[in-house]
Design a protein that fits this description.
Elements lengths: L3 E7 L3 H11 L5 E4 L8 H4 L3 E2 L6 H17 L14 E5 L2 H16 L4 E5 H7 L9 E5 L3 E2 L2 H14 L3 E3 L4 E4 L4 E4 L4 E9 L5 H4 L6 E10 L9 E4 L1 H7 L5 E8 L5 E7 L10 H14 L8 E11 L6 E4 L6 E5 L5 H17 L25
Parallel strand pairs: 1-2, 1-11, 2-8, 4-13, 11-18
Antiparallel strand pairs: 3-7, 4-6, 5-6, 9-10, 10-11, 12-15, 12-16, 13-14, 14-15, 17-18
Helix pairs in contact: 1-6, 1-10, 3-10
Bound molecules: flavin-adenine dinucleotide (FAD).
């Protein structure tokens, strides 16, 4: 009879790999199954910004907890993960946005997140290439940047070092409520629990989980060291991320250790086509040129699209299915899954082990919405 694992995780993106690492480090026997390569799905398409966001209290709690865990991990990360604490500057274009900067500063300060209000002069000193009429910004000092695919691989390798097993190029066809998974090639594995961490494809395995795709474009430039020094985002980004029903673009630029820059961002909810949408791309770049006119004169080296695994209430699903104690979810992290991978893995492992988590798990439990089980009949 084949081995029964304590936990089988389906999907080796940054979320599934982090869950595998946290479970294996808790001495559970773990099998991580990935259809392609580790970290090759949405996690390879993401920007890698480790950022505290406050669209809701629940989002703030999970993202700040996760950033704290990243920081604790940072000294152990291999070089290829490219951890660097650049900080984020949220840019205010007018007095109304400057008021939001002050409110955010108060909110973050009250909760122990280090921020600084930058006036017009301080903003220009911090980022000399921004256009001149901007009125100020908020510097979130401890936000960082990583290279997500290598981080996913690091998590999966840490699972292996703790006796976890990793299967790649192995697509799961069914997750069953009896705690088995069936692979496309006929292999079958049994687990105490099965975690659906298949990102945008979660819905193929658990048809009622409600996860849907939000398309995003990114551009990577050639190397221009020092052209920007922080991750710089317009305050309007928050509005763009918040509104789920319509397409949107916002200015968001990231420096990399190499001197290259990543330029985003766009969001489209009803777009299944993985090809570049040139209309959206042009709008996104116009937004960036508007904030940093010098960008018009630099070289881009590649453009791509990715799909964020979204949920209707903009919070991830972490925990057991309401319909089956054997089936768990770690999915639906939308545009924040690189950041919240650490918190998700820790939270899930604490729940599995029956330990009191450091943050409340209730806001992320799948039973808050009509999430169905996986089903034996897909
Ligand atoms: C343009 C863009 C920019 C982003 N920028 C950021 C950012 O700066 N910061 C941030 O925090 N987040 C960002 N995100 C969001 C982040 O990338 C995602 O939330 C995160 O990568 C989701 O990880 P995941 O593991 O759930 O999904 P994935 O990485 O897609 O992993 C799921 C895995 O499951 C596998 N799989 C699917 N079906 C099966 C099956 N049947 N059997 C086995 N395996 C299967 C897939 O092959 C895949 O590897 C961005 C996303 C996009 C698109």
């Amino acid at each position: 009879m084949s081995k029964i694992f304590d936990a089988i995780i389906v999907g080796g993106g940054i979320i599934g790999s982090s869950c595998a690492m946290h479970l294996a480090e808790s001495d559970l026997s773990v099998l991580l199954i990935e259809a392609k390569e580790i970290g090759s799905g949405t996690s390879a398409a993401g920007m890698g910004h480790i950022v505290v966001l406050d669209d809701s209290e629940e989002q703030f709690v999970l993202s700040s907890y996760s950033r704290k865990l990243w920081k604790e991990l940072s000294c152990k990360l291999p070089e290829d993960v490219q951890w660097k604490q650049f900080g984020t500057i949220w840019v205010a274009a007018d007095d109304e946005e400057m008021q939001i900067v002050k409110e955010k500063h108060a909110f973050y300060t009250e909760r122990g997140i280090k921020t600084e209000v930058l006036d017009k002069k301080a903003l220009a000193e911090a980022e000399p290439n921004l256009r001149e009429d901007l009125v100020g910004g908020l510097l979130v000092c401890d936000d960082a940047v990583i290279y997500p695919q290598c981080a996913s691989l690091y998590f999966a390798n840490r699972a292996k070092e703790n006796n976890g097993s990793v299967l790649i190029n192995s697509k799961v066809k069914e997750i069953n409520t009896d705690g088995t998974v069936l692979l496309g090639d006929g292999r079958k594995f049994s687990g105490g629990i099965i975690v659906n961490a298949a990102g945008c494809d979660s819905v193929d395995l658990s048809k009622n989980c409600g996860v849907f795709k939000r398309k995003g474009h990114l551009v990577v430039t050639d190397s221009y060291p020092g052209l920007i020094r922080h991750q710089v985002i317009e305050l309007g980004y928050l509005k763009s991320a918040h509104v789920i029903t319509s397409d949107s673009v916002a200015f968001n630029i990231q420096p990399r250790i190499s001197g290259k820059m990543l330029i985003g961002s766009s969001r489209q909810s009803n777009a299944d086509d993985s090809r570049i949408d040139h209309v959206v791309l042009a709008k996104m770049l116009d937004r960036a040129f508007d904030y940093i006119p010098r960008l018009r004169h630099i070289w881009a080296v590649r453009t791509w699209c990715g799909f964020r695994p979204a949920t209707p209430d903009k919070l991830p699903l972490i925990g057991p299915s309401p319909d089956s104690e054997k089936i768990w979810f770690a999915t639906g992290h939308e545009g924040l899954g690189i950041t919240t991978s650490t918190g998700t893995g820790r939270l899930l492992a604490d729940m599995v082990l029956g330990k009191q988590p450091e943050i409340p798990c209730e806001p992320y439990l799948p039973n808050r919405c009509a999430v169905g089980d996986s089903s034996d009949a897909q």
